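Deliverable D5.2: sample structural annotation.
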Amino acid sequence: MSETNPATAEVAAPHRYTAAVAAEIEARWQDFWDADGTYAAPNPKGDLAGDPGLVAKPKKYIMDMFPYPSGAGLHVGHPLGYIATDVFARFQRMTGHNVLHTLGFDAFGLPAEQHAVQTGEHPRVTTEAAINNMKSQLRRLGLGHDKRRSFATIDPDYYKWTQWIFVQIFNSWYDDEAKQARPISELVARFESGERAVPGGRSWDALSAAERADVLGEYRLAYASDAPVNWCPGLGTVLANEEVTADGRSERGNFPVFKAKLRQWNMRITAYADRLLDDLNELDWPEAIKLQQRNWIGRSEGARVDFPIDGEAITVFTTRQDTLFGATYMVLAPEHPLVEKFTPAAWPEGTHDVWTGGHATPAEAVAAYRAQAASKSDVERQAEAKDKTGVFTGAFATNPVNGEQIPVFIADYVLMGYGTGAIMAVPAHDARDFAFARAFELPIRCVVEPSDDRGTDASTWDDAFVSYDAKIVNSHGEDVSLDGLGVTEAKARITEWLQGKGIGDGTVNFRLRDWLFSRQRYWGEPFPIVYDEDGIAHSLPESMLPLELPEVEDYSPRTFDPDDADTSPETPLSRNQDWVDVTLDLGDGRGPRPYRRETNTMPNWAGSCWYELRYLDPHNSEKLVDPEIEQYWMGPRAGQPHGGVDLYVGGAEHAVLHLLYARFWSKVLYDLGHISSPEPFHKLYNQGMIQAFVYRDSRGFPVPAAEIEERDGAFFHNGEQVKRELGKMGKSLKNAVTPEAICEEYGADTLRLYEMAMGPLDVSRPWDTRAVVGQYRLLQRLWRNVVDEATGEVTVVDAEPDETTLRALHKAIDGVRQDLEGLRFNTAIAKVTELNNHLTKAGAAVPRPVAESLVLLIAPLAPHIAEELWRKLGHTDSVVHQDFPVADPRYVVDETVTCVVQVKGKVKARLEVSPAISDDELEKVALADEKVVAALDGADIRKVIVRAPKLVNIVPA
């Protein structure tokens, strides 16, 4: 039938599959699924307990990363991962699994708060409106979520348990002997009994309440401390390292970020560094993500060494303790707490002018340099800059191996966040130290013999010599010598010597820093912490949770001149005195007492650290999660020794933020006996991105992509030629395409198919609205193979298919099964298309067994049309829980295969043979072939190599 005249076609084919028909079908089946509870996943017990037969099946827990409900709504790039997990979940249901697949909303965060600041509208109002809009958009896509399990992190019933988890972490410490978290009460009992010595040597009974709190603060897994933080005056809040860009500005808002010392809440994630590293080995994650986490944790083996100074010591961590004899100066991070303590009032006699920075006193030099360093990000400070900066503190430390007095500098290339915030500088064998030594006219001493011809007089070198496979030289003292040893042997000997002297030991260091957990914002989870008259922090009992946010008149933290580093936070919550100052009975036997609430809030990461657990048991008001339910869905099992979600799909950008934080929370909860799975996500899959063309005018500003005219390969907007580039899709780039627009023109099933058919799921791909019609036509052809477009009657016949069709069908079944299991949705669609085209070209009525199998094959991908056709084929139950077709092996194997016959390495014949042919039979057939006989031309045969059924190689004598 010609499609050149749509109006005529509609009259001639009133039952054609059109966008209008698709819209009606899709809305009707979405209503049915909701009313029927089609996607309800039963628990083994509790208020979501259900069909015991379904619970007895193998389970499959499938998750998407938490979406943030943006007020702008979704564009077609957002649902890529959601559609993919939905297809996979539907396939798993059809292959006999009890599938848990649902979606909640990560709803705390800065965007809603910034909108509230600008408009005065409560962030809950705008956030809930955004959630409802997103739910509507996602529903239209036909996603098979168990909606009974959905929630938002802003629900008090949810963040009650976020606060409860924080209390568990606050009331825990990491027992290095047991290698796990234990209740803080056990540590207190050890201090009380004397089983464990109290730091400082005093008895526990002799300490005041405030002193005890300080001691426990050094052990708690959640603790408050004065520490260097990333302070952003323009946002009025501190930021985690991961929220600061490489050029030292805030990721949100692009404001300058400074180093400042503030009292903030932290999570002692560093206690779990080894376990976070080791357990990666058992996870089914992309290697690139594992590598990012390993690099972020940054495990390195070396030694801690004490350099004496004024009766105390500066401790350094080094991985090259074999080069100690080559240390000619030290460098501390500008923020190091010992800098002020060891800075003298005046410059020592003989101080080089280049060391002072032109300042009259060490104190002035240190203060000026600290101010300069505070304006740089950690990334900037670590960058390989040509010019090295720093200043002499006026102090000298003693190199413990040779007794030399070496000057102590501060420089911004040393960070407090790594090691001890101090380094021994061995300029002959470290490029940065070499550049610094050259700039400040410091000695450079060779202690690792160069493998080139530069010699051992390092003063003549142009750069450092770095090697881990060379002999140690110029390294001997009164009672230790490393000369002539290799690096490994020298490390072992000097470490043993340091330990024997009590001035160092072998140790492991990590790049990972404790997680900054405070935010100076309103729209976040309040901390369940109050402070008594002595400033001691107390956690709220469970009976007082959730602690809800109070109403405030001003939602914004106080912001400052973005360039003014000499400022400090003032939070919105601190301005509500009726909420801050309270009288409470915490149930600790002390009765009602006055307290002051914590006025910071938790970061937006808090709610997403554990949401996989809440999906399991979302209405439990008594426990975080019922142990039996958690064990059923997430507990360890064969192939998954650490348990976790069976498939977790989301963006690779969360590698060292959400994923690392969630793993840490899971391990703490596991240690404390609350869950059976020490890992939250067993299999991780990173989907790619849907990109779109961005069109920019002569000013570089985006113009609406929908208004672009293409002429002769050039692009124009309102008559002006514009540039085209491939980039992200978004409202600000004026190239966003909404799902609704595609659904209205083609239907949701078409959109689903197009997004899955664009390419492999894990790669980025450009959106092309013009190409969507290809999948629309696939569905129209599928419809025509079952339904008469003129009458609406089903056209399939109750007949057995011919062998050619059987082979096409079972090859498709086999291929689609494998592709869906492997998340290769684009190739699965290609195989469905091939089968559908075979049936279309046959030109005859489709046999019922083939039609039903075809509908079942496409059901995970295009569920609405599959439900409709399944019903039209006479079935009264939903297609969702039907068994996925199983291929008959007899029809999957090709009837014949092509065998290549070579003579002297050159192809002389191609034979069509049975796939089951034996080596002996194939050799006889090949040698009898007339082309092979002609090629041999009577020559004797030295060898025949047979690789049935595809290759015969004949070697003449």
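Annotation notes: Confidence is low (pLDDT under 50) at residues 1-8. The first strand starts at residue 59 and ends at 64.
The annotation will be released with the project's public dataset once the embargo ends.
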